[in-house]
Amino acid sequence: MAPAPDGGPGAVEDAYRAISKELAGTPGLLANELLGAVDDAGRLLVMSEWESLAAFLEWERGADHRTATAPLRPFQDRERDRFFEVYEVRDAFGGG
Fold it and tell me: Per DSSP, what are the bridge partners of residue 35?
């Protein structure tokens, strides 16, 4: 994400919390997190976990997607070729 414009350092966090409340109960959305780079306080990432790729794509193509995520749009890093990416789990280890 890009540095916070005029809203100050808490602007991204405020936008993230507002969106998270809006998205509560969205079918297929399991969780989301706001992550910060340990070596650069200004670099943030929103990670969402979905029950399936199909559930995510259905939400993304829906009418509410752009409105719900609008508060974070000013913070997207448009310098990157792709300012969002979709990943899927290929393998996992429980560590126990």
Answer: 45
Type and span of the H or E element at 67? helix 64-69
Distance CA(6)–CA(91), nearest Å, equals 41
Burial of 94 (0-12, 13-18, 19+ CB in 10 A): exposed
Q: What is the pLDDT of residues 9-56, one digit of tens each?
A: 689 999 999 999 999 999 999 999 999 989 987 888 999 999 999 999
Tokens encoding 27: 């079918």
- Cβ atoms 16, 72 nearer than 8 A: yes
Ordered by where they begin, the domains of the chain are: 11-75 (3.30.70.100)
> Could you identify the residue written with the tokens 């399936």?
52
Which pTM does this prediction carry? 0.82
Backbone angles phi, psi at 44, to 5 degrees: -125, 160
